Amino acid sequence: MRISTPSLTNDSHTISFDQLMPIFLSSRPSEVSPEMPFKFTGGFGMNSKDEGALMVAQGFYAMFAQAALFPLLAKRYGCLKVLKAAVMLWPMLYFLVPYTVLLPPQYRVLGICFCLLWRTTAQALTLTPNNIMLTNSAPSKLVLGAINGVAGSSASLCRAFGPTVTGYIYSKGLSIGVSGLGWWVTGLVCIMGAVESLLMEETKINSNDAGAIDDEQAISDHTMISPLSIDAAIAAATRPEERSIEDLSEVLIPLHPGDRLEA
Q1: What is the pLDDT of residue 172?
Q2: What is the pTM of this model?
């Protein structure tokens, strides 16, 4: 399997969502009339208790989506199709979230719950496929540790820069009366991941291809010890007076692939 993953952009915009959402929920509702389609500010004015209840509900649903929803969809459609569908629909969320504050008061909480549900589902359907396909893309188990190490370090770097940049943009947007600016820029990053996902592919590697050789087995084959060496070592240990070091060294010969033992 040879793949290209949009995992870095996903790590960047998901952590940015987690940063912006509590600020958005706790911000006071605006007293200024919005100037559609982009110029408006304000939030939901939620207290910490209500925000915590939403986060707890989101966490429980995340466990369900990860343990039940993703395996069901992956079994039916495959990891790659599930991943592509999720990342292609995800950018719309970032463009819709700021407008939930403009909903009628009786529908605002319902609107934000829908957005949190969307975000949690999208993350569950992209995080696990990314990890699975990254592991399967390794040409050998010998380099799997290095691949995962580089991927983890790169993801951490994106998680560090994502909130820093979007937080700055969000504050600038508030200063000009456009509270959705940070969300929409984050949506552009999400679009980059969606476009990148179109380049992803699953291919079966030909078993006759030299690149498909199991490196671990090859190394193991070259380091096998001849059974004669084992017998000689046992004999030398039990009757050291009958064997000299020079005699023992004559039979301690590694067995290479293709060698045959003669009776």
Answers
A1: 94
A2: 0.72
